[in-house]
Amino acid sequence: MGQSKGGNVNMQLDRYLRFMGKHRNSPAAAWVGFLLLSLVVWKLVSDGDFSFIMTYGAFARSFGFGLLAVKIWTARSATGVSLKTLQLYGLVFFFRLTSIIPFSGYLPYDKSGDWFYHFVESVSLFLVLVALYLVKIRFPHSYDERTDSFGNMHVPDQVGALVYLAIPCFLLAVLFHP
After folding, report:
1. Average pLDDT of the segment spanning 140-151
2. What CA–CA distance (Å, rounded) separates 95 from 52?
3. Structural contact between residues 49 and 110, judged by C-beta atoms closer than 8 angstroms
4. What confidence score (pLDDT) does residue 152 get?
């Protein structure tokens, strides 16, 4: 009862650091760190507005791509990773950044839309590019092109997912949102 609020925070931080030291290679430690960082970001960067959900979704997605890149690097293998999906995510992040950097219509309304959302989307693009590099250049021996397919669509390897799926999406976007 005699402890100050700052002392309690320091005690909690000390417990967390000890936990992280014991469980360094555990995915649970990464998730606990992500949740704590999420609370810090919400408190410092957001106004507490509902539009922070958009920023939080981007933050969680970026965390997921970070975990993927770390998993590929530590396993020294790209087994089970879809190169085509990573290519499409790279396109998504590239085109999203081209629409949010010069314009403000697609941004969260709270403070997180000022700079943090741009930052998180840029980090996501960077992490997807890292994962693409790891799959295609660093560990190509473990990538299995035969199992990387879009269900029953059987996208040919020469054409790739970018042309086969991105062009129809682009045409639909031009048609419905000129």
Report:
1. 80
2. 21
3. yes
4. 61
**Which of 132, 122, 63 lies closest to 94 in space, CA to CA?**
122
As a whole number, mean pLDDT of residues 16-20 equals 63
- DSSP for the chain, please give it: ----HHHHHHHHHHHHHHHHHHTTT-HHHHHHHHHHHHHHHHHHH--S-TTHHHHHHHHHHHHHHHHHHHHHHHHT--TT--HHHHHHHHHHHHHHHHHHSS--TTS-SSGGGTTHHHHHHHHHHHHHHHHHHIIIIISGGG--GGG---GGG---TTTHHHHHHHHHHHHHHHHH--
Under 8 Å between Cβ of 118 and 101: yes
pLDDT at 125: 96
Other CB atoms within 10 A of residue 26 CB: 12
pLDDT at 129: 95
What tens digit of pLDDT does each residue of 87-136 get?
889 989 998 899 888 877 777 677 776 788 889 999 999 999 999 999 99
Q: How far apart are CA 118 and CA 101, in angstroms?
A: 7
Tokens (6 digits) for 3: 């402890």
